[in-house]
C-alpha cells in the first residue's frame, strides 16, 4: 500500500494556466508559480502559507479540488510555501490564560466550536500540544484566520504565528 501525497497548484481559477505538482514541503513556491488561484489535493493534508519560509496566513486543506482560492478560505491568490501535515491518531491540547504556561488551564481532546463556551476569556495566551495536530480559528464555528499547531509548546500567541491571542474555535486535524 503506497499513499500518494501530492498537491497541484494552478495560477488561474478552474485549474487553468501554469501549474506546479508538489510532492512535499516547499519553502518557496515562487520559482514555480507566481500566484495561486486553484488547487487539486491528490493526497495528504497540507498547510499553505501566504509567504515563503512557512510564514503569513495559513490555510489547511485536505484531499479534493478547490477551483478558487475562496474555497479554501484564502484571502487572496498568494501562496508562497507549503508543508505536508504528518498523520496523527491521538489528540490532547492544554490551553493557558497566561503566557509561559501559567494561570488557569483547560485540557481538550475534542473540537470546540466556540472557545467562549468553556473558556471565560477570549484569549489563549499559551498552550501545549501533547498529542495530534490542531487548528486554531480566529472566530467561532471554525471561521477566520487559521493557525496550525503540531506537537510542541507554544509560550505565547506569536509562537503559533498569530498577531493576537484571540481564539474563537479549535478543531482537531483528523487526517484520512
From TrEMBL:
Superkingdom of source: Eukaryota
PROSITE patterns linked: CRYSTALLIN_BETA_GAMMA
Protein keywords: Eye lens protein, Repeat
Protein's UniProt keywords contain Repeat: yes
SMART domains: XTALbg
Pfam family, one: Crystall
KW Repeat (keyword) present: yes
GO molecular function: structural constituent of eye lens
SUPFAM superfamilies found in the cross-reference section: gamma-Crystallin-like (SSF49695)
Domain Beta/gamma crystallin 'Greek key': start-end pairs: 5-43, 44-86, 91-131, 132-174
Biological processes, Gene Ontology terms: lens development in camera-type eye; visual perception
Family under the similarity heading: Belongs to the beta/gamma-crystallin family.
Role of this protein: Crystallins are the dominant structural components of the vertebrate eye lens.
Name of the protein in question: Crystallin, gamma S4
Organism in which the protein naturally occurs: Dicentrarchus labrax
Gene: LOC127365855
Amino acid at each position: 500500500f503506497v499513499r500518494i501525497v501530492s498537491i497541484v497548484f494552478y495560477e488561474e481559477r478552474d485549474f487553468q494556466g501554469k501549474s506546479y505538482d508538489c510532492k512535499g514541503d516547499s519553502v518557496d513556491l515562487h520559482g514555480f508559480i507566481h500566484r495561486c488561484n486553484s488547487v487539486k489535493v491528490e493526497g495528504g493534508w497540507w498547510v499553505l502559507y501566504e509567504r515563503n519560509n512557512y510564514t503569513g496566513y495559513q490555510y489547511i486543506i485536505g484531499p479534493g479540488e478547490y477551483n478558487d482560492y475562496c474555497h479554501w478560505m484564502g484571502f487572496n491568490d498568494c501562496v508562497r510555501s507549503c508543508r505536508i501535515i504528518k498523520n496523527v491518531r491521538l489528540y490532547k491540547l492544554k490551553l493557558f490564560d497566561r503566557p509561559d504556561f501559567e494561570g488557569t488551564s483547560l485540557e481538550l481532546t475534542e473540537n470546540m466550536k466556540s472557545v467562549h463556551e468553556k473558556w471565560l476569556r477570549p484569549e489563549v495566551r499559551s498552550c501545549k500540544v501533547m498529542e495530534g495536530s490542531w487548528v486554531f480559528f480566529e472566530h467561532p464555528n471554525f471561521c477566520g484566520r487559521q493557525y496550525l499547531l503540531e506537537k510542541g509548546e507554544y509560550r505565547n500567541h506569536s509562537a503559533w504565528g498569530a498577531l493576537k491571542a484571540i481564539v474563537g474555535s479549535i478543531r482537531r486535524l483528523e487526517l484520512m
